[in-house]
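Quick one - first record:
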Amino acid sequence: MAVEIHPQLLRSQSGDELVVLTRAEYDALSSAAAEALEDAADIAIYDARIADLHSGRDAILPPEISSAILRGESLLRALRKWRDMTQLHLAHRTNLTQGYLSELEAGRKTATPQTLRVIAKALDIDCAWLGVQKSNRR
């Protein structure tokens, strides 16, 4: 419901110009300002995400992985299943234990960046998908 704004302008004794609004007009302006601030914040977030994508700081995951994450799977488990690997197969390819991979997938342990690079290589994925940069070592 749009409210028409009909401000009344007054001049104070000191010469300052004052604006008088009805409560409905004030509420409508306040609501519009709050929406504008929220929109501006959303636009800033969008712009930051697009900049991250273009700079390579963020990665676009395949839809199958995103869907698995939305169903509650961890990123690592979704990637492993997407590559059609068991934990045992991934353990063999990375020289990590199956139990450790299980702990990582469950979120009970946190991998080092180097371990994440090893896993990314075994899964044949970009390191950025696991939130790490490629190693500069040769």
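second record:
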Amino acid sequence: MRIRLNHNGKDLGEFEQKQIENLIESGLIRYETLGWSEGMSDWAPIKEIIGTPVVPSAPKASISSNSPTFVRYFMPVGRIGRGMFLLRTFTHLMLLGLLMASLPDPYTSSYSHSSLDLLIMVFVLVWGYVSIMTTGKRLHDLGVTAWASPLFFIPIVPLVLMFVRGTDGENKYGSAP
């Protein structure tokens, strides 16, 4: 059976049911996309025409494994294990501490308080961002979305993430670390 598709007012042409299922699975169209087949009196949502449930896949990350390491480090894409999470968290804290210790004393330096406050704020924001991205990758190893990453700032959460075992094998966020 050939079905003509109309997505957001645009005629997409005729497709076989298997092709339509592949389009739904890839996320290019949705169940609400209108379809029409010979013998039908009016356009209807695809879900009413094909009747078989097709689960749309999760959107693929736009950062590929061949992207530069620097880019991948700062993006919540992929997975890291418990050891790497511990190492990165410890390293981020140490670097933040070293940067803060290297700041001049506000009482004896020629820098104004506002410029030092701004510099401290930048250091803390960069640390927070990198910590959230690292937590996102660790959560991916557990099969959880990176949107839960701000939980990192609850003191017990990083400790739990250091001890909870990740999913074995590949999951929807990538292969095992």
